[in-house]
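If you are new to this repository, start here. Below is one unmodified record pulled from the training split, so you can see the exact layout before writing a loader.
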Amino acid sequence: MRTYRTLDQLIQERLSDPERRAQYLDIAVEDYVENGDEAELLLSIRQVVQADIGFAKLSETTGLSRESLYKTLSGKGNPKLKTLKEILSALGYSLYIKKQSA
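And here is the target side for that same chain:
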């Protein structure tokens, strides 16, 4: 009998490698810059959290409740910049602003 996996399971398998997680986030950020879809970016960060440290550890590291983190990264969340910075920092990433070239 054939075993089927969900899309989430397939994504989690692919993101088990730290290098792939970094590439995935890079692409998600590029897509966000191009199309402005915040929900897509937040869901991508959620996938990385699940594949990397998980929500319990993220909650411990950031001091934010798991419920708050689930809501923030639900795709319907509207996180403050500080919250997003804390989440990315817990994953080993930094958030910075770069001046566009003219």
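Two things worth knowing about this chain: The radius of gyration is 14 Å. Residues 7-88 form one domain.
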